[in-house]
Amino acid sequence: MNFHDVTNLWAYRGELCSKPLVVFAGHTDVVPPGPLENWNYNPYEGHIDEHNVLHGRGAVDMKGGIASFIVALEDFVANYPNHFGCIGVIITSDEEGKAEYGTRKVVQELISRDIKIDMAIIGEPSSNETIGDYIKTGRRGSLGGELTIIGMQGHVAYPHQSLNPIHECLGALKDLVDMKWDDGTPDFGPTTFQISNINAGTGARNVVPGFKKVIFNFRYSPASTEESLKSRVKTILESHSLNYEIDWHEVCSPYETDSGSLLVKHALESVEKVTGRCGKLSTSGGTSDGRFLRATGAHVIELGLSYKTIHKINEHVRISELEALSAIYKDLLERILLKSKFFLLGGFLGALKSSVKDDIKKANLLMYFNTSSAITHKTQSTCTLEQK
Could you give the CA distance from residue 139 to residue 129 in angstroms, rounded to a whole number? Predict the structure, then answer.
């Protein structure tokens, strides 16, 4: 499924009417590498060193995740050709940028075809120290704004003949920064407001500027809404009698999958079985394509590698971590499509003609790094939900 200049993949195996439809999702686009001379290896070639560590841009975010779930799917279908339900894959090349023609459009197309996703596992790097120590069950919403304070340009020696927008908006900006927007929810921390850019002035030292631009962003919990935040910003600005314009953008609604859902329960069980440790649930971090998948009514989790080296120089991951993640994915599929009584609704035909060998698996891990494109834009019993 290609939209504009964005290449997307939608693939499935089985009958779409078979339930559940379990989808693995990921993205192949990456952020720029930065200075190439600062990398130990070419970031676009994918290099496995003598310590069995894979280096490359996207090794963690998130071609490594894609490689892990592809290997898991190959193993699972080879071992269980007549399992219940249907398995799908969504891979996009538009996630690090504006995310306009990637997963968003694929999901819209699937909805138009009356295809209903029941569960989605996104291979985004969700872990901290070790694989599976955190599973994301939701994300905060994002709301960005560009505020223009309109003044009157003039000479600094005659301030009574000008209106300095820098001075005029200081009180309003302080009120916005100091505001307690909400208390969050049991699963989400409070909404935050951050100013990321301020720009004013002509460059001359003796000129009062005619306007001032302020770029800001909300990361908001379900305790607030897009409409409530916009309304409260308007109230604060108008209370200071400012002449202003505001352009709202980057609207992403918060989402959450119930911590008691079957998908979350099985994910925690799979992590514990493979790693011997109990994972925790989290709703921290930035935005992801999970918001598009959750909007369809699907249960969504993000379960992937450690995010410690993402977007950094010398991004890397141990092969053993990729193998562990793949094992978690396979075990999760077994729990959903083989063991769950809730889904004993029918199966699908066909299987891979041959089982996957170790050398093919290793080739798969490298295959996803053969690209030179970079996007400049970018067990239930004991585990708890952690606010971060």
Answer: 20
Q: By three-state DSSP, how is residue 108 classified?
A: helix
Residues with Cβ < 8 Å from 368, sequence gap 6 or more? 28, 46, 58, 63, 64, 66, 67
Q: 220: helix, coil or strand?
A: strand
Exposed, middle or buried, 15 (CB in 10 Å: 0-12/13-18/19+)? middle
Q: Is the pLDDT of residue 355 over 50?
A: no
CB 267 within 8 A of CB 120: no
**Residue 376: burial class (beta carbons within 10 Å; 0-12, 13-18, 19+):** exposed
Contact between 382 and 277 under an 8 Å Cβ cutoff? The reply is no
What would the two tokens of residue 61 be?
A: 């975010």
Question: Residue 312, CB half-sphere, CA atoms under 13 Å: how many?
Answer: 12
Non-local CB neighbours of 113 within 8 Å, separated by 6+ positions = none
Catalytic positions: 29, 95
Full-prediction pTM beyond 0.70? yes
Q: What is the pLDDT of residues 50-68, one digit of tens each?
A: 999 999 999 999 999 999 9
